[in-house]
């Protein structure tokens, strides 16, 4: 896939660092790299207290280095994007083993004295991928050539990135010229480029979305990774900026069956799929009056195959739209791709 070029060539392969994470939803960077760039991951490394695992081999930094690892990647995307002091000794150990550090957190590696001093002493690199490009313009709202698809969600961490990657891959498999456009740290690590939308100054966020999906051939599709949720009490701003700036022709709404409360904000109930579609189409029509919903992507990872099939069929009948779990594929997913391209 084509993509925005990164200014830094990332050292690979990776050792995935899970810290002391206990919430699987916060380890989405590690899971994303495992699922979409598994050939670049030698294993995982966690510290005391961690209960989350990717299922990759558990390795010390020293073992990973002997297996050819070049960097340790912080595989966590916690609320606030901070790097707690409890992680610092493990990250220093990784540098002592010969690994660079790659991070997509809001906190900058170079701003942590312990890590910066160790990197200078050991000759290691501290690479922050959550760095937006310079000179992002204010959004114009002007139509652009080409076609665009944006994934939106009823919440965070439920499949917007996976859905966009799967749709772009399926389009390419059909001979359609499609590009996955990464908007978060995990997507950037997978694709090798993109814009970390949540690190862009608010006034320029819609402009960054325009920059991410520029004019293209009429038959070309940009498949844009969504962020947050239009209903999220903290992250709705980045979701709306992506919606206005990307000017999608098609949206696909992502949801996890059974999730009832906003991740990290249990005082808020999740919006319905219908309300999410309705709000997205009303707001998105501001910059693209032709916007439509191609269908719904369900994250059924917590369900067995039979239960997933029943939920997918039921929701499709109820909503009158194609519904699929892209990670399960099958006829339902092919129908979703058909609807997006139609």
Relevant terms:
single chain, 342 residues, alpha/beta, Rossmann fold, five-stranded parallel beta sheet, globular
What does this structure look like?
The structure is a single chain. The chain has 342 residues and is of the alpha/beta class. It folds into two domains: 115 residues, NAD(P)-binding Rossmann-like Domain (Rossmann fold); 195 residues, Rossmann fold (3-Layer(aba) Sandwich). The protein contains eleven helices and 13 strands. Strands 7-8-6-9-12-13 form a six-stranded parallel beta sheet, sandwiched between helices. A five-stranded parallel beta sheet has the order 2-1-3-4-5, sandwiched between helices. Strand 1, helix 1 and strand 2 form a beta-alpha-beta unit. Helix 1 runs parallel beside helix 6, helix 3 runs parallel beside helix 4 and helix 7 packs across helix 8. The longest helix has 15 residues. The N terminus is likely disordered. This is DUF1611 domain-containing protein. It holds the Pfam family DUF1611. It comes from Lysobacter soli. InterPro entries: DgcN-like, DgcN-like_C, DgcN-like_N, P-loop_NTPase.
Please specify the SSE layout and strand pairing:
Layout: E1 14-19, H1 28-36, E2 41-46, H2 61-66, E3 71-74, H3 88-96, E4 100-103, H4 113-122, E5 126-128, E6 147-153, H5 160-173, E7 178-181, H6 185-191, H7 205-212, E8 221-224, H8 236-246, E9 250-255, E10 261-262, E11 265-269, H9 273-284, E12 292-298, H10 305-319, E13 323-324, H11 330-341
Parallel strand pairs: 1-2, 1-3, 3-4, 4-5, 6-8, 6-9, 7-8, 9-12, 12-13
Antiparallel strand pairs: 10-11
């Amino acid at each position: 896939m084509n993509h925005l070029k990164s200014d830094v060539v990332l050292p690979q392969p990776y050792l995935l660092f899970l810290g002391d994470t206990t919430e699987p939803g916060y380890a989405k960077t590690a899971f994303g790299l495992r699922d979409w760039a598994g050939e670049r991951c030698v294993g995982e490394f966690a510290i005391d207290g961690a209960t989350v695992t990717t299922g990759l081999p558990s390795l010390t930094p020293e073992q990973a280095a002997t297996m050819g690892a070049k960097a340790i990647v912080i595989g966590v995307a916690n609320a606030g994007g901070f790097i707690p002091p409890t992680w610092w000794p493990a990250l220093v150990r990784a540098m002592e083993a010969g690994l660079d550090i790659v991070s997509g957190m809001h906190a900058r590696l170079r701003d942590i004295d312990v890590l910066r001093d160790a990197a200078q002493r050991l000759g290691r690199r501290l690479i922050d991928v959550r760095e937006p490009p310079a000179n992002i313009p204010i959004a114009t709202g002007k139509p652009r050539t080409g076609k665009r698809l944006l994934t939106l969600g009823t919440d965070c961490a439920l499949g917007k990135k996976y859905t966009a990657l799967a749709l772009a891959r399926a389009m390419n498999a059909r001979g359609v010229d499609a590009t996955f456009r990464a908007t978060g740290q995990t997507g950037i690590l997978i694709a090798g480029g993109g814009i970390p939308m949540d690190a862009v100054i608010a006034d320029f966020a819609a402009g960054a979305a325009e920059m991410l999906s520029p004019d293209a051939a009429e038959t070309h599709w940009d498949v844009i990774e969504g962020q947050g949720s239009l209903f999220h009490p903290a992250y709705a701003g980045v979701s709306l900026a992506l919606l206005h700036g990307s000017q999608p022709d098609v949206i696909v709404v992502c949801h996890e069956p059974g999730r009832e409360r906003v991740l990290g904000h249990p005082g808020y109930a999740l919006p319905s799929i219908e309300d999410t579609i309705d709000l997205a189409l009303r707001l998105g029509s501001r910059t693209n009056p032709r916007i439509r919903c191609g269908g719904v992507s369900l994250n059924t990872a917590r369900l067995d195959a039979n239960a997933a099939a029943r939920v997918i069929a039921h929701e499709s009948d109820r909503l009158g739209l194609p519904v699929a779990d892209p990670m399960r594929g099958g006829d339902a997913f092919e129908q979703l791709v058909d609807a997006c391209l139609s």
